[in-house]
Amino acid sequence: MSKIQQIDFNNKKTIIRADLNVPLKNGKITDNSRIVASLPTIQHVINNGSAVILMSHLGRPEKDLNEDGSIKKEKYSLAPVAKELKNLLNTTVLLSSDFGGIDSQTKASELKSGQVLLLENSRFEKGEGKGDEQLASQLAKLADIFINDAFGTAHRAHASTYKIASLFPQDKKAFGFLMDKELEEARKITENPKKPYTVILGGAKVSDKLQLIEKLVPKADHLLIGGGMAYTFIKAKGGQIGKSLCEEDKIDLVLGIIQKAEENNCSIHLPIDTIAADEFKDDANKEVVSTSEIPENLMGLDIGPKTIEKYRKIIAESVTIFWNGPMGVFEMSSFANGTIKVAEAIGNATSKGAYSLIGGGDSVAAVNKFQMGEMMSFLSTGGGAMLTLLEGTPLPAVEAMEK
Length: 403
Ligand code: AMP
What we know:
Structural class: alpha/beta
Radius of gyration: 23 Å
Low-confidence stretches: none
CATH superfamily of the largest domain: Phosphoglycerate kinase, N-terminal domain
Bound molecules: adenosine monophosphate
CATH architecture of the largest domain: 3-Layer(aba) Sandwich
Strand order of the largest sheet: 5-6-4-1-7-8
Largest sheet: 6 strands, parallel
Shape: elongated
Number of domains: 2
Mean pLDDT: 94
Strand content: 15-25%
């Protein structure tokens, strides 16, 4: 595979897999950051004399079929994205009515250097998710060069991310700037992270993160646990957790992790205190209680002040920090404090020279909600892909480019 800077784009057609999966409300884009983040790669290709054919998915139309079982729906059309691209790039942006079909072929064949053709939602084609070879070959025939800049979908072996890559020779394919950056940042924590290295994990379920924890334990010095997943740990250690989230069937695995951590000199820290509430509501009655003595009628929805203090100190002494998953139900202001204070602590450590990577949808969403993105070293755009990478599982779309 080449570097994007080494490729000769002049008078060529380049097909770019981007992640333009923006949130929409009543057909309007509510946050265009994914489009903006894709611009440097698109612009580089245009500036170097090529025509651009863009591919992306949008939403999950396959989970919202029409009554007759068909998949195409106006609500999942990339039309608003085409409009936004036109505004941002100030060039002709066409939208095909299909993904790799006759209309894509006709429009691609007529495309001139400097112009952009956006293919309609990749998920309108059933073959996309199945990694269909025929579809990949139709897409590959539209262009001379393939660029993958969609880190967010790199953990999926789809036609437009994985199968297509093998159809281009090494000197005609490369990662885009966004993808390159994500992989470079991930290496800072996967390959010899500077120590002390602290991993902060939260979110709802421990089952989603077990493989990740197993992989991180041998590398990290501290593992700070928060969010709903903390209570399965507390229960495993014999605590009373009231109505808090718990995955009983994962208790043995959690005990195994605690032992593995001890063997690897990784300190696992659990919340000491909890903001416990009588209902899962912002205006529920709440009180601070010890995490291992939560009354039967209450559920833990955020970490408490003593825990915040303890986690703050550990974070302040860390040189490498990875954070995934909120410390509590941050969407409700009554239970957002733990997440805010941990984010602040990471931001402060970063301003004093630590490296911080925030990965995983909800922790990035929380950091953005509290406007602390600027305080962090790097916010990953691909939650699932970043976690897969950190779990030590190769990303199919990355591997396919190297073949
Ligand atoms: P995840 O997708 O696994 O990172 O989980 C994120 C979700 O976990 C967020 O929507 C939080 O509201 C939720 N969450 C965090 N802490 C708790 C808790 N103590 N109880 C229930 N849900 C929680």
